[in-house]
């Protein structure tokens, strides 16, 4: 069953790289959204919830950590799966963001296989 996906990253180039890598992974995504920061992501989620969100940690205006907390407060996005995609690799940060409601974590650089591994459990 095809899923909807939102990529949240302040770098337009990184959003394109993530999108291309997700496509290369072979996952069945039928609708994609992009947001340049957490505030924009919340506005788009309010208009049209998504199944899966790929989110950077370090962004201006609202960090990925703050965004996870806010998304978990939205009734329309209770079931949205949030996978963090970041260069940050400290185990403490990863543990904290998972405790705050993220469903997984991918460190950059990433591969199509890594997206396949992390997102496949949420594709049913």
Put the structure in a nutshell.
By secondary structure, the chain is an alpha/beta fold. It is 40% helix and 22% strand.
List the helices and strands and how they pair.
Blueprint: E1 3-8, H1 12-24, E2 29-35, H2 38-47, E3 52-55, H3 64-73, E4 81-86, H4 91-99, E5 104-107, H5 112-119
Parallel strand pairs: 1-2, 1-3, 3-4, 4-5
What would you say this structure looks like, in words?
The chain has 124 residues and is an alpha/beta fold. It has one domain (3-122): 3-Layer(aba) Sandwich (Rossmann fold). Helix content is 40%, strand content 22%. The protein has five helices and five strands. The protein has helices spanning 12-24, 38-47, 64-73, 91-99, 112-119, and strands spanning 3-8, 29-35, 52-55, 81-86, 104-107. It has a five-stranded parallel β-sheet, with helices on both faces. β3 (52-55), α3 and β4 form a beta-alpha-beta unit. The mean pLDDT is 95.
């Amino acid at each position: 069953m095809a899923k909807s996906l939102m990529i949240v990253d302040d770098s337009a180039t990184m959003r394109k790289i993530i999108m291309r890598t997700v496509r290369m992974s072979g996952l069945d995504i039928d609708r994609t959204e992009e947001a340049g920061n957490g505030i924009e992501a919340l506005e788009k989620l309010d208009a049209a919830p998504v199944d899966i969100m790929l989110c950077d940690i370090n962004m201006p205006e609202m960090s990925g950590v703050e965004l996870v907390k806010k998304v978990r407060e939205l009734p329309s996005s209770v079931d949205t799966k949030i996978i963090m995609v970041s260069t940050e690799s400290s185990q403490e940060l990863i543990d904290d963001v998972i405790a705050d409601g993220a469903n997984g974590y991918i460190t950059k650089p990433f591969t199509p296989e890594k997206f396949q591994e992390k997102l496949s459990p949420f594709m049913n």
